[in-house]
User: Which sequence fits this backbone?
DNA sequence: TACCAGGAGAGCG
DNA sequence: CGCTCTCATGGT
């Protein structure tokens, strides 16, 4: 069967770190390659000298959708220049220079992070995998590849019962996901309109959804809409800011929030991803620590 | 076993 | 404003 194949020319791109850094939850490693589904399209990606090799199940004439998702046309050096040049930030950048932000679909990103509340990343992946397998549309895959599914559209989830969602192990998050799906499907909540709003207004709008507070809203603004000023503060970032920037006094959440919003510049959310990845992957001090992920 | 996880929201002082 | 509790589930 005819596949699509393309070579993305890009430097400063750590594909593995980017796809496995807790911003997207559907990518699966297969040796040196990664397979996933973007919109309704199965994709296989592999880092090669000079860039990224991409394969799809069906031939493609235009690959802009993939460059958009991977944000491969972003000049990282320009982003780095806006980061504060303090020791913690330099260490986080040195630990993973090719880490990037993706540009994901807003609906998938919103639901994914609604499901992330008090869950470990491995568990978030499991819930989403179950949700897609049971309720997402089957997509074309190359011969020999395991079956794959698109992320369920709002309309598909809106038609389900709360019990069906709970069967995907999402627990107390189920009614919130269902309510969001029904509001989006009814056209009462317009995810596309958020693109036209300034950051603060888009954030307020997202937080009107039950189960979406400031942290989840910031994740969606950053990972789906490209508001690079959005700075999600989760338990890892709290730990990072506390240990790296306030080492000898306990800083209350409020103070950490203010620091996060003011210290990291116009691409603060990007800086946040470097700190997040740094904290999750660095060797635990003193040994005997747990491994993240 | 006990604790915790890329939280949110309500109740209370 | 602050703190505390609950929600559901499973990894370590």
Assistant:
């Amino acid at each position: 069967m005819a596949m699509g194949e393309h070579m993305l020319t890009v430097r400063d791109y750590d594909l593995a770190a980017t796809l496995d850094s807790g911003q997207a939850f559907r990518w699966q490693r297969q040796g040196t390659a990664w397979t996933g589904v973007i919109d309704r399209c199965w994709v296989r990606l592999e880092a090669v000298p000079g860039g990224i090799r991409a394969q799809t199940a069906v031939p493609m004439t235009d690959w802009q959708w993939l460059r958009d998702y991977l944000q491969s046309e972003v000049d990282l050096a320009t982003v780095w220049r806006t980061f504060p040049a303090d020791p913690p930030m330099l260490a986080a950048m040195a630990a993973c220079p090719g880490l990037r932000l993706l540009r994901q679909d807003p609906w998938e990103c919103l639901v994914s992070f609604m499901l992330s509340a008090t869950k470990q990343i491995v568990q978030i992946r499991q819930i989403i995998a179950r949700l897609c397998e049971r309720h997402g549309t089957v997509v074309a895959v190359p011969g020999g590849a395991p079956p794959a599914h698109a992320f369920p559209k709002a309309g598909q989830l809106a038609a389900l019962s709360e019990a069906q969602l709970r069967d995907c192990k999402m627990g107390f998050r189920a009614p919130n996901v269902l309510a969001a799906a029904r509001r989006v499907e009814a056209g009462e909540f317009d995810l596309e309109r958020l693109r036209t709003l300034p950051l603060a207004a888009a954030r307020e709008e997202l937080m009107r959804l039950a189960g979406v507070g400031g942290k989840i809203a910031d994740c969606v603004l950053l990972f789906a809409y490209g508001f690079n000023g959005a700075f999600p503060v989760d338990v890892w970032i709290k730990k990072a800011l506390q240990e790296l920037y306030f080492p000898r006094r306990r800083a209350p959440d409020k103070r950490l929030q203010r620091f996060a919003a003011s210290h990291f510049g116009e691409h603060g959310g990007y800086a946040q991803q470097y700190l997040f990845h740094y904290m999750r992957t660095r060797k635990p001090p003193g040994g005997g620590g747990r491994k993240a992920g």
